[in-house]
Amino acid sequence: MLSSLNEIKKGLSINFNNEPYIVLEANFVRMQQRKPVMQTKLRNLITGKVLEYSFKQGERVEEADLQRGTANFLYKDEKFANFMDNKSYEQFAIPLEVLGEKIKFLKEGTGCDVLYYENNPVNVDIPIKITLKVITAPPGVKGDTASNVTKQVTLETGAIINAPLFIKEGENIVVNTETGTYVERAN
Question: Boundaries of CATH 2.30.30.30 in the chain?
């Protein structure tokens, strides 16, 4: 049980309406002649839906009892992404809408952290930086190098990102999965 509003921080997992949520944003607001509130943006870990809620002073907030484990990404179909638990070797599926944009950067065999709620896998955290191969990249045009100019490249997972002009087909690059941006060439 959290004792004050100040303990609600970004990244905290809480029970809200009997479901696990993660705090995406938390802003403490004190308006004139009103009681202070903690304005939050929460993501449901089971459905992936985002909602905004203002916690008032004295409102009870419980931390969610989440366990963590590891798994490898196997494949995706029209509705689900399928994973294999690294300890029990059991396979499980998570709906694509729960994973959101993360699914664009997962390739077969990628290791992930799994969040379990009441012993059921509800979500996965993928590595922040992943190395992926460039499948298609248009050639850079001469004379476009005066400033930080980019071009769109397609990665082996099907994701399309902006990369510098010097990136060629067949190269491996490091991608930030949180922002979906190019980081550097891979060694």
Answer: 5-63
User: Which long-range CB contacts under 8 A does 105-109 form with residues at least 24 apart?
Assistant: 105/130, 105/132, 105/155, 105/157, 105/159, 105/175, 105/177, 105/180, 106/73, 106/76, 106/81, 106/157, 107/73, 107/132, 107/156, 107/157, 108/73, 108/74, 108/75, 109/72, 109/73
158's torsion region: left (phi>0), alpha (psi -120 to 50) or beta?
left
Tell me which CATH homologous superfamily contains domain 66-125: Nucleic acid-binding proteins (2.40.50.140)
Per residue in 6-53, pLDDT (tens digit) is 788 888 888 888 888 888 888 888 877 788 888 899 988 888 788 999
Q: Which residues contact 184 (CB under 8 A, 6 or more apart)?
A: 173, 174
C-alpha 94, offset from chain centre? 14
CATH topology of domain 5-63: SH3 type barrels. (2.30.30)
**CATH level 3 topology of 130-185:** OB fold (Dihydrolipoamide Acetyltransferase, E2P) (2.40.50)
CA distance 179 to 145: 24
Which residue, among 58, 20, 22, has the nearest Cα to 38 in the 3D structure? 58
